[in-house]
Amino acid sequence: MDIDTDIYPNIAEGQSNQEGNLVDPSIAPSTNTTIGTSASAAITQTESKKKNSKITKLTMNNNVIHDTQKSQVRTLMIYDIPSTWSHDLILDKLKDWGRVLEISFKTQHKYQSVWTKIILSPLADSEFVMRTWSKQLGGIDVRWYLGFWKLKDCKERERYQAKINIPADATDDTMNNYVSGLPFFTFLQKTGKVKSYRLIKDKGNKFVILYFETQKDLHDFMDLVQPWKVTISHAPPKPSDKSSKDKKKRKKDAKQDQKKTKNDIKGPSSKSRHKPKQDKMDMDTRALLLRLLNLLA
User: Fold this and answer.
1) pLDDT tens-digit series, residues 27-51
2) How does DSSP classify residue 238?
């Protein structure tokens, strides 16, 4: 799922205590029955619409936080969850991470994104504090972010990308013994220093998008000898050395220069152009009066 829209900006703001796809065919998709069909007394459900998309928010009424757990309360953004997963299934899978206090769902094409406030288990909290970029949820890899991040923050973290096209005739032996006896995904993470990845299937084609923490890690990975072709997914944007204030000043100056150029092309103002014509009319009038006086004399 591409990150193409801001998700739940109103929910994410003001949250405290912030620290910073692989599709498994063996996992059967759940039904589309969502929480709320048979309302539970332990859950409060609300729905809202924004830009033609529906956001479903659930609040767990039994959300007491003990003093010993306060440091483990996190707000997370989670991507790459299949849209076929019901809200019940997602909540059930998140039990492996900890106890959910609040959660919101938003479907985006084949996937859905989730914002959640959760008490992470000690193990999951350690992974989060260590800034891992992805985590297993119900047998698939999902990307997780700080809950208060905006769209630009997510894109900035994942701007160093590469893509590997998996050949149609790729075998399980190749996947399990990709380079030097290492399985494909183990090679990506341990040898290639890949922070996270997504396996995408599109019209019979399979490819993996890889995300790197630094440009150096990306270039080092491109230099590795491996069986399948690797390409840079997109060029990272050039960092700007000018402030927004300087940009505004340059834009203002450009507008002034453009206005000055237009005035130069137009030439003298309308007032100055009409002045000679007015003088000529005055002279003609005086000459006519003189002729009339001569005739009357």
Assistant:
1) 334 333 334 434 455 666 666 655 5
2) P
Distance CA 162, CA 13 (A): 32
Token pair of 26, please? 């063996």
8 Å CB contact between 233 and 209: yes
Which residue, among 210, 217, 185, has the nearest Cα to 196 in the 3D structure? 210
- Per the structure block, which two tokens stand in for 192? 């290639």
**Tokens 């299949």 label which residue?**
82
> What is the C-alpha to C-alpha distance for residues 68 and 75, in angstroms, rounded to an integer?
17
pLDDT in tens, 82-100: 999 999 999 999 999 999 9
Amino acid in position 207 = F
What per-residue string of b and e applies to 39-77 under the rule 16 or more CB within 10 Å gives b? eeeebeeeeeeeeeeebbbbbbeeeeeeeeeeebbbbbb
**Amino acid at residue number 235:** A
The alpha carbon dihedral of 119, 125, 129, 133 has a sign of negative
Among residues of the chain, what percentage have pLDDT more than 90? 29
**Could you give all domains of the chain from N- to C-terminal order, each with its CATH number?**
1-156 (no CATH), 158-248 (3.30.70)
Distances in Å between the Cα of 272 and the Cα atoms of 235, 260, 276, 284 are: 55, 18, 8, 20
Q: Which two tokens stand for residue 175?
A: 């996947």
